[in-house]
Amino acid sequence: MTKDLTSSTISRQNILNNNYALEQLESNLSLGGIYWHDQAVFTKAHIAELLQIDIRTVERYLENHNDELINNGYKVLKGTEFKNFKEYVSDIDVGDISKTPSLGVFTFRAVLNIAMLVTESEKAKTIRSKILDIVIDVMAQKSGGHTKYINQRDEAYLPSAYKEYSYRKEFTDALDYYLNADKWKYGKYTNKIYEVVFLENAAEYKKILALKEKDQIRETMYSEVLNAIASFEHGLAVEMQQESLKLNRKLTTKELDELIVKASQNPYLVPHINDARAKMASRDLCFREALHQKLENYIQSVPQSDFDKFLGETSKSLEERLSDPETLAVLKRLKDR
Questions:
Q1: Which of 6, 22, 56, 255 is most deeply buried (CB count within 10 A of its CB)?
Q2: Whole-angstrom Cα distance, residue 256 to residue 57?
Q3: Please, are residues 65 and 95 in contact by the beta-carbon 8 Å criterion?
Q4: How far apart are CA 31 and CA 9, in angstroms?
């Protein structure tokens, strides 16, 4: 999937929230700037020179994308802060600012931001291309080259997967005990739960993530998605039992369908379902370059905490998790509950 950084706020923010990529970008792009308070800062004049555009073009982008640029590090120095800055730099660095009441400066992050916005500059286009190349390299390196299972690098994945496995057994037992239906009921009602939680059936999900026929799709799901599925399976199993005992017979498929519709509107479950949709859609677009079209309205930029979760020091492969005594102790407690 080609990312047009000039038109996609989410794609830009996903890069700017990735501190691991920013670190590599700063050392590889060598954009210069003035080091002040232990970070590079750039004036509007610096940006105009760097991107080979008129300073009025810089000001126009500042006006049109003010909130975004401020969020990513642009600020106006005033008062004591500006006085300290003037004392730190020379006129050679930033021009004559002796009579200027304030000065706008960009951090390195904000420079990348405006370079991803400017369409009039060939230099900005070149920087965008380098940004994408470096981000791809960082993602591959940090994830071990296996973004298909990047979900498993989250320390919450294994406990969530284990709990979901337990609740799925509870749900499939309920289908056996309380539903009058043929042998296809397991796949049929698994798909119905998927469609409630993330609006796709198993075949659609596999196609979007380009999974192979033998790939187990729950092994690719984020912990929050597994938790939402487990909550739905558990609640549905309990309601099936209660309804069957009340009627003194097994449920029909129509009656179970009605229970599923009712459960999908449960005010206790709706926030968890919406959260699962947002995390699946946003993370898959960012980490796997997979677009869930039915979840497009839920796509958000991925926060810095998610990059730490899947790429940082606390992230580990599944093999590493299974050899960790603390993780095994958690799984044992879940088994014994």
A1: 22
A2: 61
A3: no
A4: 23
If we measure between CA atoms, which residue out of 284, 207, 287, 195 comes closest to residue 232? 195
What are the start-end ranges of the H helices in 199-322? 202-208, 223-247, 253-264, 270-287, 304-311, 318-322
- Look at residue 143 in the predicted model and tell me its pLDDT: 81
Q: Is residue 335's pLDDT more than 80?
A: no
As a whole number of angstroms, the distance between CA 157 and CA 152 comes to 6
- DSSP secondary structure string, 148-211? GGGGGGSTTHHHHHHHHHHHHHHHHHHHHHHB---TTHHHHHHHHHHHHHHS--HHHHHHHTT-
Residue 150's nearest CA partner among 277, 280, 326 is 280
**Selection from 230, 205, 229 nearest residue 284 by Cα:** 205
User: Which of 38-47, 248-257, 273-282 has the weakest average pLDDT?
Assistant: 38-47
- Burial call 15-44: b when 16+ CB within 10 Å, e when fewer: bbbbebbbeebbeebebebbebeeebbbbb
* Residue 107 token pair: 């951090």
Strand order in the sheet with 75-77: 34-36, 39-43, 103-107, 75-77
Please give the average per-residue pLDDT across 232-250, as a whole number. 96
Q: 86-129: per-residue pLDDT in tens? A: 877 765 566 666 677 888 999 999 999 999 999 999 999 999 99
